[in-house]
Design goal:
The structure is a single chain. This protein is α+β, with helices and mostly antiparallel strands and about 70 residues long. About 40% of the residues lie in helices and about 20% in strands. The chain contains two helices and three strands. A three-stranded antiparallel β-sheet has the order 1-2-3, with helices on one face. A hairpin with a 4-residue loop joins β1 and β2.
């Protein structure tokens, strides 16, 4: 199953990179030199976040999307 979490993507002039935040997964962020790289990195980090939560016995939020999360 591929998680369907909301991604917030923006350009950071300070970092000279695209930043991706995953609001439903606390602390889950990624970056990349291109938009595509940032999203690809976010997909990896999301899976790592989920794996770590499982290992630690923490709950994994069900993806709700922007309208239900906001």
């Amino acid at each position: 199953m591929e998680p369907k979490y909301e991604l917030i993507i923006y350009w950071s002039q300070d970092d000279n990179a695209f930043i991706v935040e995953v609001p439903e997964l606390p602390g889950c962020m990624a970056d990349g030199r291109t938009y595509q790289e940032a999203v690809a990195n976010a997909e990896i980090i999301i899976q790592e976040w989920i794996n770590t939560a499982r290992e630690d016995g923490r709950p994994i939020p069900i993806p709700k999307g922007k309208l239900k999360y906001a």
